[in-house]
Structure formats: structure tokens, C-alpha cells
Design brief:
By secondary structure, the chain is α+β, with helices and mostly antiparallel strands. The protein is built from eleven helices and 14 strands.
Length: 265
């Protein structure tokens, strides 16, 4: 077993300071990705900075037309929140479909988006609802946060602290999960803002979450599953593996988008 040093800071500022001093420090929150990666010897951080217990990263608040969720909030807390269910039911449904009960009781919102797994659910919520990500240094628009496979706009040592989701007029999420991992082969979040702006965000299909402008335009004109008839997503640059070809995923995007609109009502 390689040597690593475990730290448990008392604040975000202390955590950031510990990271800056470490040769190869990693943040630990729910550990749903980092711990298995370490067990497989794919990562060997010099220091682990455990921020899972920081009170300033916890909690869900609703007010001013926004649902704000602390980065350390567990998926299960989001799924079980009556406030989330009342304000953005689609967000609660998305959280409820993440992994299995163990993952939902350990995994965190901040960890999910900072890792930016191409098949994770939360990136679709952040982009599909037009959320804003707050970090230890700044605020970042959801559209600018995810930059590529396992890549984000976060700087070295920057820590996600909370995510603010505007409450939409309508929203829905539909996912076709891998039957074993429950990761999204394709997941689609659709929303219609209080200003009428429509968003369609897709996860699982490509290397990174992406929007579908043609679907957004069609739904802005006619909010119904039928509005998406005939709109196809190109299979070029989509993911392909033993579970599904790029063409299969391209077809799933349209199918899941229609289901998401139906779920939104």
C-alpha cells in the first residue's frame, strides 16, 4: 500500500490551504469515485483532504426563485427533500435515479460535477436548468463549467461550495440507465424557464454534457413530445462501447428527450 496523509480541515479555507501545500492532494467528500480509483492503483494522492463533514458545504435552501444546494449534500438528501420536490420535481427524480442506495447515501453533488464523469446525471441538471456553480474563488455559469471528458473549468485547488438552480416553469428528466452500473447511457433534462427559455441538456451520450439547439427551438414553439418528431442527433463523436453504439445512443437522445418532456407535463 502506498503512503498517503489524511487531513480533516475545519473550513473551506483550511481545506484550500492544505491542498495548496500538498504535492498531489485530492479532495475527499463521498469518495464514490476516488476510493475505488485508489483501490485500483489508478490514483495515488500524497494527501487526502476530507471535506465531507464541513457544515458550510451542507444543506438545501429554497428562496427567490432558486434552489441552492451545498456541494457536500448527498444525492439521497436531494432525492428525499420535500423542498426540492415542491420547487423542481425533476431534480429530485434525477437524484433518486443515481446509482443505488449506498451511492445515494454517500455521493455528493459537488463531487459528481467536479469529477464530470461523461455518464453522470448531475451535469444534465446543471446545464439543463441553467444553474450557477459557486466555488471557493468565484461563480461559474453552468454552461461554462463542463469543458470535456472528466474536465471542468475548475482551477487547481478550487473547491465547489454550492450550486444554485433557478426554479423553472416546467422541467423533466429521463434516463436510460446501464442495468449494471445505473450510470446514464443517455439522460436528458429539459426545462422551460419562467421567461420561456427552453433548455435541452444531454448526458451519457457524448464525452461531455451538451445541449441540442434544434430541440430547444422546436420545444420553444410547441412544448410537446411530438415537437421532437424528426429531430435526430448526429452519431458523430458520440460514445460507443459494449453497451451501445454511437448510433444507438443518438436514437436514445430523441427517445429520452420525448420522455422528459412528457414527464415535465
Amino acid at each position: 500500500m502506498y503512503e498517503t496523509t489524511y487531513h480533516r480541515p475545519g473550513s473551506i479555507a483550511e481545506a484550500a490551504a492544505m491542498l495548496s501545500k500538498a504535492a498531489d492532494g485530492k479532495l475527499l467528500a463521498g469518495g464514490q469515485t476516488l476510493i475505488p480509483t485508489m483501490k485500483q492503483r489508478l490514483a495515488s494522492p500524497s494527501d487526502l483532504v476530507d471535506i465531507g463533514g464541513l457544515a458550510e458545504l451542507q444543506g438545501i435552501t429554497v428562496g427567490g426563485g432558486t434552489v441552492t444546494i451545498g456541494a457536500g449534500t448527498k444525492h439521497g438528501e436531494v432525492a428525499g427533500s420535500a423542498d426540492v420536490a415542491a420547487a423542481i420535481p425533476a431534480l429530485g427524480a434525477l437524484a433518486e435515479g443515481i446509482g443505488d442506495p449506498h451511492v445515494r447515501q454517500m455521493g455528493t453533488l459537488g463531487g459528481s460535477i467536479a469529477n464530470n464523469d461523461p455518464a453522470a446525471d448531475y451535469p444534465a441538471a446543471v446545464v439543463g436548468l441553467g444553474a450557477t456553480v459557486t466555488t471557493s474563488k468565484r461563480t461559474i455559469a453552468g454552461d461554462d463549467f463542463f469543458t470535456g471528458m472528466f474536465e471542468t473549468a475548475l482551477d487547481e485547488g478550487e473547491i465547489v461550495t454550492k450550486v444554485a438552480f433557478p426554479v423553472p416553469a416546467k422541467a423533466g428528466y429521463a434516463k436510460f440507465p446501464n442495468p449494471a452500473s445505473r450510470y446514464a447511457m443517455v439522460g436528458v433534462m429539459v426545462s422551460k424557464g419562467t421567461d420561456g427559455a427552453v433548455r435541452v441538456a444531454v448526458t451519457g451520450a457524448g464525452p461531455c454534457v451538451f445541449r441540442v439547439p434544434a430541440m430547444e427551438a422546436a420545444l420553444a414553439a410547441n412544448w410537446s413530445p411530438a415537437a421532437l418528431d424528426g429531430i435526430a442527433v448526429s452519431a458523430a463523436d458520440l460514445n460507443a462501447d459494449i453497451h451501445g453504439s454511437a448510433e444507438y445512443r443518438a436514437n436514445l437522445v430523441t427517445v429520452m428527450a420525448k420522455r422528459a418532456v412528457a414527464a415535465a407535463g
